[in-house]
Amino acid sequence: MVRSDLAGSTQPRSPGKMTTTMEQVKTKSVEPHTRFALPEVNWDELNEPGAYVERGSGDLYRVPKEAIIPGGSPIIHKESIGSSRLVQVSKNPFVTTLEARLRCAQHNIDPNF
Fold first, then answer.
1. Whole-angstrom Cα distance, residue 45 to residue 91?
2. Which of 23, 31, 75, 97 sits between 20 and 30 A of 1, alpha carbons compared?
3. Distance (Å, rounded) from C-alpha 90 to C-alpha 96?
4. 51: exposed, middle or buried (C-beta count within 10 Å: 0-12, 13-18, 19+)?
5. What angle is formed at CA 10 by the lines to CA 7 and CA 12, rounded to 5 degrees?
6. 1: which residues sit within 8 A by CB, 6+ positions away?
7. Which of 98, 99, 79, 78 lies closest to 90, judged by CA?
8. How confident is the model at residue 70 (pLDDT cuts 50, 70, 90)?
9. Are 58 and 105 in contact (CB under 8 A)?
10. What are the residues facing 11 on neighbouring strands?
11. Is residue 59 one of the residues assigned to a domain?
12. What is the number of domains present in the chain?
């Protein structure tokens, strides 16, 4: 009789004798190994396309490269009494909403999208 275990190896088995193969399982932590800060800018300093989350409101802004062409007409108009900070959660303005929310969670930003 031949016994096959989960790891895919086979071992001969003698009648009346039970053999067990134990395999060590190594687990990886779900926590990131290195922490890094996401770039944070004011509206006036916005000069790179990407997906940005406003720190105060948690709103997501997708800024394509066409929106920041020098001398071009700005696509985003925002008026506010207070200043707001934008955190760049991705260099890709079309990042999935799920991934953007995940990055917010990793950096303690409360998303509102």
1. 15
2. 23
3. 10
4. buried
5. 145
6. 12, 13, 15
7. 99
8. confident
9. no
10. 3
11. yes
12. 1
Q: Which is nearest to 101 in space by CA: 112, 92, 91, 86?
A: 112
**So what's the pLDDT on residue 98?**
97
pLDDT per position as a tens digit, 79-108: 777 778 999 999 999 999 999 999 999 999
Domain presence at residue 86: yes
Q: Which domain range does residue 51 map to?
A: 40-73+80-106
Tokens of 72: 């071009």
The answer to whether the beta carbons of residues 88 and 49 sit under 8 Å apart is no
